[in-house]
Amino acid sequence: MKKRLIGIDVGGTTIKIAFLTWSGEIISKWEIPTNTVNKGENILTDISESIKQKIVDLSMNLADFHAAGVGVPGPVQLNVGYLPEAVNLGGFGGFNVNDTLSVLLGIPVITDNDANVAAIGEMWLGGGGGADNIAFYTLGTGVGGGLITNGQIISGFSGAGGEIGHMPIVTPDDPLYIKCNCKATGCLETVCSATGIVRIGMYYLENNNGHKTCLHRDDLTAKTIFDAAKKDDILALKIVDRFAQYLGKSLELLSVTINPEVFVIGGGVSNAGEILITAVEKYYGTNIFPATTKNVSIVSARLGNDAGVIGAAKHARGVSVYE
Predict the structure, then answer these.
(1) Start-to-end CA span in the chain (Å)
(2) Average pLDDT over the chain, rounded to whole?
(3) For the whole model, what pTM was predicted?
(4) Mean pLDDT of 244-272
(5) DSSP letter string over 155-191?
(6) Sheet of 152-153, strands arranged across
(7) Cα 176 to Cα 3, 102, 180, 199, 228, distances in angstroms
(8) Fewest C-beta atoms under 10 Å: which of 43, 126, 134, 244?
(9) Confidence band of 321 (pLDDT split at 50, 70, 90)
(10) What are the pLDDT digits (tens) for 121-147?
């Protein structure tokens, strides 16, 4: 019988942990709080202790497990496991996660960026449908992503490959051309994150040319905007259209660089569903080298919050996207 796998997805608030079969079926999953005190010095110990206790609770043995995969919110030197720093975890990092957690757990560990492991999960068992070339977007508080070409994650020189939220999409002549949290200006994240679409919405509310709308400044969110657009609210449709222009342009730029077969759109904003996908399709492939967009699909992510632990488990198989 194939051994079992452990998937770990470290977030700023909670850490998701799961035991999975070799084929990716979740046996058990749970969460623990992320303790970021003192630069997260107890994070790996908390993970190890929680896993060991769960093994006891389920009458399992450590010998049942092949390895553990980990996703962390920061750039990782993949084949080494070194994490320079995860700013969203209070400065956690500056050491080799693979080696440290492996000693604590007593089994091999492989670590990667959290968006990368989510991309692997969606490629393996989610919206990617097993395609070897996918671009995965997470549209949430920020915009993250993972790029997979010929079955391999693009990590880049410093582990920052796939930081698609910081693609320079907004041009200087655009009124929404603003500085991003990364200190650059015009990043995709400033207009296509949950806060980004609200920023677009505020702009349209302030420059509304007499359109009747159910949208209000006091409760403007990505959800209220998309819900209003589904009811054919004219102003909401304009906001979604502007959002789709930015996102569609970023997809086009990726098409002529890595030429993915499937774009998988995940994250909280993607809960809008088909209206988002349809809006982006309108602007994708309209002004770009045709060979890069032929037969390309744009789909919603399917694994939700489980993408990270499933992708981390795929890493842990050892026969992952790097085989």
Answers:
(1) 21
(2) 92
(3) 0.88
(4) 94
(5) --SSS-TT-GGG-B-S-TTSTT--B-TTS-BSBTHHH
(6) 152-153, 143-149, 134-139, 262-266, 297-300
(7) 51, 46, 11, 8, 22
(8) 244
(9) very low
(10) 999 999 999 999 999 999 988 898 999
